[in-house]
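Worked example

This section walks through a single chain of length 79. The input is the sequence exactly as stored; nothing has been trimmed or padded.
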Amino acid sequence: MITGAQVAAARALLGWSQFELSRQSGVSETTIQRFEKGRIELRDNTRTAIVSALRNNGVQFVDSVGVHLRAGRQIETKR
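Given that input, the structure is written out below as tokens.
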């Protein structure tokens, strides 16, 4: 089961805002904010949407403690 901290860390790895994760996953920005702050638990379908959006963009979840990017995945940085 993913944690709010993992989602926040995954967003950071990708350089995504909560808005961008909302756009990519179809989950409201408010729900993402509340989950990351530990204020709510996610429904299964909501969790699946968030995890799918992050995994589709190269994030791998490490047990219930961390995240990293798949080998070969590079983040595009804005200059």
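What to look for: The chain has one domain: 4-69.
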